[in-house]
Design brief:
Largest sheet: 8 strands, antiparallel
Helix content: 25-40%
Distance between the termini: 42 Å
Number of helices: 15
Strand content: 15-25%
């Protein structure tokens, strides 16, 4: 795919970068284009950048601060990485913005830092950027401006943040205060760093606050800010904590490299996906903190592949701006806190520019990604995920048996009689059975209500599907993971248990469901949603359904056992404006007949591939035997799995 014409880039270098062709010069050119494109939207004193697009719930002034703070982080990477040898107007703009933003008389002053305010998020970016550019910006500010900046940051001291990754915004901001000799609270810093210890669950994984909150915030927040704090505190001031953070990040990156497809796309899962290549933040931090297990050539291959992936698909857009979406603007994948400048947390994806030009990550020859060398299977017991990559098509799939973005169950309701007490609505970016690097969930409200893709639902007589709210992990090892969740239907107080085991074999996922259902309910299961600029091709038979995009991405589901829907037992659901990957989307699904109630077993084969898919042949690829509580799967190669 040709690189977008919106970026004026240097020639590719296929000797140094045989996989992507990109070098440090491409990164610098992309950063410069993104920064230059913001200037038409700056306030007169450059304290705010008021970008076009839907505003956040925090208001226009907060959104303007967000534009300054998040782009300042990108500017800081560019300025510090070049040793200050950049267009002087870049440093001048941000120095001027600091002066105007902290001046109540300027007409564009930033909101004060108050408890749990959005300003806390943005202040952390300002603090990191000021530290990294200290010789070129902070040290050259007028003493009066420095005092005003300190006064603005002082709103953190003794303040209250949300009890999740926000604790780290206070940590880095107050450490900046300490670094410039300003008053700060040591207990705020220590308490924040102590608190994240409660969320460390092992193998390099944190939860983002209490509950099973696993997504990209683990990389671009929970791992990133502790080591940014350590850069500000210095080796004499980190109290030995940095060594622990470095060890954890190293372990995390061992698995994290498997989240990226051969085309550079990250797995599309979780919230705040408009930050896009901010997913590279932990990869670059591993190199910055000298704790990465990845070879230098692999680090750059992964990072350049991801940045190029988005550039090839129009990110940034023709104006040089990042929009609220994945490729194009797509608001259903955003949150109410997302404003027009929110996507500029993508600046974290440029942290590699802080490394000198002669660092090995910029001079070593590129190495292939794991999925470019072989099929990969990675079990992640902490979040309850299986990662599955196939070399032939470069797709990585995430099978989800652990992350639901819900608070933990109250102690008083740990029994299976009330497993969803305290849980919120199911979020399509967390509750699905699977995600991938080539598909997105159907997240527009009208499509999310139908809840077809990558979901096993009970369908009430009125057509209402059950939801998957709180996920209860059971097993995650090798190529097998399992969990259970509760299903509820309108007018029925009972919680019906649905247990699912996923088994990976070759390019396939086989799902074994043990289902409790009331009389008259229908069992329905969907595969991956595929989307594109034109309506996908669709086909189905009595026990299989298939959808294929114009560029050959195929999603299919095949009934292997327990599906008795007859002629109407499989179909493809189409939708429009429901998917971040394109305006036309389609989901293959299986549907059973109304059930007499009680327990049942359903086994299906789920395919997402760029290879040719022949559903009728796949019906014979797996033999299924159900014997009481045991379900035995036997594959053509003779391998056998009991679940």
């Amino acid at each position: 795919m040709p690189v977008t014409p919106y970026l004026q880039l240097p020639p590719t270098d296929r000797v140094l970068s045989s996989r992507t062709g990109w070098t440090r010069a491409h990164w610098e050119a992309t950063a410069d284009r993104m920064l230059d494109a913001l200037t038409p939207y700056a306030s007169p004193g450059f304290a705010q950048y008021r970008l076009p697009g839907r505003g956040s719930w925090s208001g226009v002034v907060s959104d303007g601060l967000e534009g300054f703070a998040r782009s300042f982080l990108l500017a800081a990477c560019r300025i510090a990485g070049a040793g200050g040898a950049v267009d002087p107007s870049l440093t001048e703009r941000y120095a001027a913005g600091l002066a105007a933003g902290t001046d109540p008389r300027s007409g564009e002053a930033w909101p004060r830092l108050t408890d749990c305010s959005q300003q806390m998020v943005e202040a952390a970016s300002v603090a990191v950027a000021l530290h990294e550019t200290r010789p070129w910006i902070w040290d050259r500010l007028d003493a009066g401006v420095q005092e005003r900046v300190v006064d603005w940051f002082s709103g953190f001291v003794g303040g209250r943040t949300w009890d999740n990754n926000w604790r780290l915004f206070q940590v880095v901001s107050e450490q900046f205060l300490a670094s410039v000799g300003a008053p700060y609270s040591r207990s705020d810093i220590e308490d924040g760093l102590d608190r994240i210890e409660d969320w460390y669950v092992g193998d390099g994984w944190y939860t983002d606050g209490d509950g099973r909150n696993f997504d990209y915030y683990i990389g671009w927040a929970m791992h990133l800010y502790p080591l940014l704090w350590a850069r500000i505190a210095g080796p004499e001031g980190d109290g030995g904590r940095a060594a622990v953070y470095r060890e954890r990040l190293s372990r995390f990156l061992e698995d994290y490299q498997h989240f990226f497809g051969s085309d550079g796309s990250p797995v599309h899962q979780g919230r705040s996906l408009a930050y896009r290549f901010a997913a590279l933040a932990p990869v670059w931090m591993g190199a910055l903190a000298d704790c990465t297990p990845l070879a230098p050539g692999l680090t750059r291959r992964l990072a350049s592949g991801t940045l190029r992936h988005f550039a090839e698909r129009g990110v940034p857009d023709e104006r040089g701006l990042l929009t609220l979406g994945w490729y194009d603007t797509f608001l259903p994948s955003t949150q109410p806190y997302s404003g027009p400048a929110s996507p500029y947390w993508a600046s974290k994806g440029f942290l590699g520019l802080l490394l000198p030009a002669d660092h090995a990550v910029w001079t070593a020859r590129e190495l292939p990604l794991p999925v470019e060398e072989s099929d990969t299977y990675t079990a992640l017991p902490a979040p309850g995920w299986l990662l599955h990559g196939t070399r032939n098509d470069g797709i990585v799939r995430l099978v989800n048996h652990g992350s639901d973005h819900n608070p933990p169950a109250p102690e008083a309701s740990t029994s299976e009689d009330d497993p969803d007490r305290g849980a919120g609505e199911d979020d399509p970016h967390y509750a699905k059975l699977a995600y991938s690097t080539t598909t997105a969930p159907q997240s527009a409200p009208h499509a999310a209500a139908r809840n077809i893709d990558n979901h096993l639902a009970l369908i009430a007589p009125d057509g209402t599907p059950s939801r998957r709210r709180r996920i209860h992990p059971l097993r995650c090892e090798g190529r097998v993971a399992s969990s259970w969740s509760a299903a509820r239907l309108p007018g029925d107080e009972r919680a019906y248990r649905i247990g699912t085991t996923s088994v990976l074999h070759g390019p396939w996922e086989i799902r074994v469901h043990r289902v409790e259902s009331p009389e008259g309910a229908v069992v329905r299961e969907g595969g991956h949603a595929v989307a594109g600029a034109v309506s996908p091709f669709a086909s189905s038979g009595p026990d299989w359904a298939l959808a294929r995009t114009a560029d050959g991405l195929t999603s299919a589901v095949v009934a292997l056992y327990g599906w008795d829907g007859g002629a109407d037992g499989a179909s493809v659901a189409r939708d429009v404006e429901s998917n971040a990957y394109g305006p036309h989307s389609a989901v293959p699904y299986l549907r059973g007949a109304p059930r007499p109630g009680g327990r049942s077993v359903h086994v299906s084969l789920v395919v997402l591939s760029r290879d040719s898919v022949h559903p009728e042949a796949l019906r014979t690829a797996v033999r299924v035997r159900v014997d009481g509580d045991a379900v035995v799967l036997t594959f053509l190669d003779g391998s056998r799995v009991e679940v």
